[in-house]
Design goal:
single chain; 267 residues; Arc Repressor Mutant, subunit A; 2 domains; 7-stranded antiparallel β-sheet; 10 helices; globular
Length: 267
Amino acid sequence: MKPDFHVRSFVATKDTDWADAGFHQHRTLEISILLEGRGVFEWSGSKLNLEAGQVIIVPPVLLHRFEGKQRNRYGVMHLEQIPPRIMEHLADFESGSMPKVIALSRLDKERFEWLFREFLRILASPLKKKIRTYIAWVEVIVLFLLEHSQTDQHALTVTKAADYIRENLRQGVQIGDLATLAGLTEAGFRRLFEEIYDMSPKQYLQQCRMAEAKWLLSSSNKELNEIAEQIGFVRLHSFSLWFKKVEGMPPSEWRKMQQRKTDEFSG
């Protein structure tokens, strides 16, 4: 009988410098993220200084060691007897027998930490379908990393600009300001942004506005004019026209449709 999928996961917090006593290896696949502070990851004659938001995927039996600098927090996950479906996702990182180093933007790191802490809560809970639940949550975590991580430093600076867009839907943003934030020319910023997100910065802004509008329409009782203002529209009429152009119906009708679906599901 094949052994069950096994997960061990925790958050390690230290207020002072620390270092592993020496190089070590384990039979599990390890995913570690530096959530706060600075650190060091060392393996096979290579050494990497870590910043918050960087993720290390360590393959089994690789000799390695970690360090933490000043106050630091690591989120750690060890996976053993990994199901084929999750292994397929992990293969997309193309790390092979070497560690894979990726990075999350600040906002995505915060979202990942929330997801990770919820998973820790799941691990500590009594479950009816324990292994299936573990598999589902780990798959979501791995897919989140695939969707939101970057390996190139220039790409990471662009994701920081994308964070700025998401945080400033009400005020709106100028391309010149985003390019300055990323340390690029406007032309260079537009080109790199489209390479990473497969859309222009303006299209990304509109996508974020629509996602936020739908979230507020379906999960809150806020008035339409309040929602319009929150995502950057001065006039309710402009918001309604924009929403209808994209979705084929005004926001008021879209909200009613979502409520009907909810009533049908709950009934």
